[in-house]
Design goal:
The protein has 363 residues and is an alpha/beta fold. It has 14 helices and 13 strands. Helix content is 40%, strand content 15%. Helix 4 packs parallel to helix 11. The structure holds pyridoxal-5'-phosphate.
Length: 363
């Protein structure tokens, strides 16, 4: 038989390994009580308003969704104070990462990012045949000076997770503005702000301001998966220069965002009390984690996101497995290049306490 025309650069991709689902851990280890602090989900669940809206909308799932996500785009535009023409809604912000790679990168071209960042960037870049180039980190954060040195005439797209996953570090307005001066106009810089809602830093950059001032080579990605508690429905969005948004609309599938996701996101956006409650929980949780890690003498990285990265000073994979057997799912950071580090999502107060009890037992 003749060989199928598999592309060598796709065969070389290492697939993304997500956090273990609770049901899988219960099934495999025969456990009854399992908590998951592994995928930066919202421990409060979805907004009750989103649930009510989805229940109502269930009756209409025999119809195709609104292909232009009209009502959600309209509400987002008002909430963000940005024109509708600048927005693209996606099947999770992951879909928009894919649209950017497909839209801007061809075989042999380069996508630039940092070491120790979101693992979906290399996967979706390599699938397009691009060379994925990284710069080393500085103090667990992006080193923009080193990244600027890696820009070549083949660089088409730059991904910057701000705040970064999995370290929780952020880049300030000054850092970002200095970097952008070194980026050629024909290279698109994508600021992935999946954890934007958890930022307390006052010097966080205003990339939207740059876009609305007609800067064409920057864009922002945001998601409803984290602060809005809709990870299972897959919905996120991007803010682009209107020309870029129009271009991406040509690439996306006609019904890329399902109807329940649109309805739930719209209801969540209006539920300001739920959003505030989530932020309060994360801000207090972060401080609790810092205090507890200090008591244990374990190094950690200060975070602007809903998770904290800590150094368990031993093989992280072994500790991860020990905690798993006790019903606490966290994330080993081996795949991200931090073999002794663990990332833990901030949960409900009782979950956070269970995590520390379990950690102490396993150490
Ligand atoms: C930095 C970053 N970007 C994007 C995403 C993907 O979010 P979504 O669920 O909207 O696809 C994540 C999810 O973990 C993330 O950490």
């Amino acid at each position: 038989m003749k060989k199928l025309p598999l592309k060598s650069w796709i065969e070389a991709v290492h697939p993304y390994v997500p956090g273990k689902p609770i049901s899988e851990v219960k099934r495999e280890l025969g456990l009854k009580n399992v908590i998951k602090l592994a995928s930066n989900e919202n421990p409060l669940g979805p907004s009750p308003k989103a649930l009510a809206a989805v229940r109502k909308a269930l009756r209409e799932i025999h119809l195709y969704p609104d292909g232009g996500s009209f009502y959600l785009t309209d509400a987002l535009a008002r909430a963000l104070k940005a024109p509708k023409e600048n927005l693209v809604i996606g099947n999770g912000s992951n879909e928009i990462i894919e649209l950017l790679a497909r839209g801007f990168v061809s075989e042999g071209e380069e996508v630039l990012s940092s070491e120790g960042t979101f693992l979906v960037y290399p996967i979706l870049s390599q699938v397009c045949g691009a060379r994925y180039v990284t710069a080393p980190m500085k103090n667990h954060g992006y080193d923009l000076a080193r990244m600027a040195e890696k820009i070549t005439p083949r660089t088409r797209l730059i991904f910057i997770a701000n705040p970064n996953n999995p370290t929780g570090t952020y880049l300030s307005r000054v850092d970002v503005e200095a970097f952008l001066k070194k980026v050629p106009d024909d290279v698109l810089v994508c600021f992935d702000e999946a954890y934007f809602d958890f930022v307390e830093a006052r010097d966080f950059p205003d990339v939207q301001g740059m876009i609305l001032a007609e800067r064409k080579n920057v864009c922002i990605l945001r998601t409803f998966s984290k602060a809005y508690g809709l990870a299972g429905l897959r919905i996120g969005y991007g803010i682009f220069h209107a020309e870029t948004a129009g271009y991406l609309h040509k690439i996306r599938q006609p019904f890329n965002v399902n109807s329940l996701a649109q309805i739930a996101a719209l209801a969540s956006l209006k539920d300001k009390a739920f959003h505030k409650k989530t932020q309060k929980l994360v801000f207090a949780g972060r401080r609790f984690f810092y205090r507890e890690f200090e008591k244990l003498g374990l190094p950690f990285v200060e975070s602007q996101a809903n998770f904290v990265l800590f150094d368990c000073s031993r093989d992280g994979e072994t500790l991860f497995n020990a905690m798993l057997r006790k019903g606490v799912i966290v994330r080993s950071m081996k795949a991200y290049g931090f073999p002794t580090w663990i990332r833990v999502t901030i949960g409900l107060d009782a979950e956070n306490r269970k995590f520390f009890k379990c950690l102490k037992e396993c150490l």
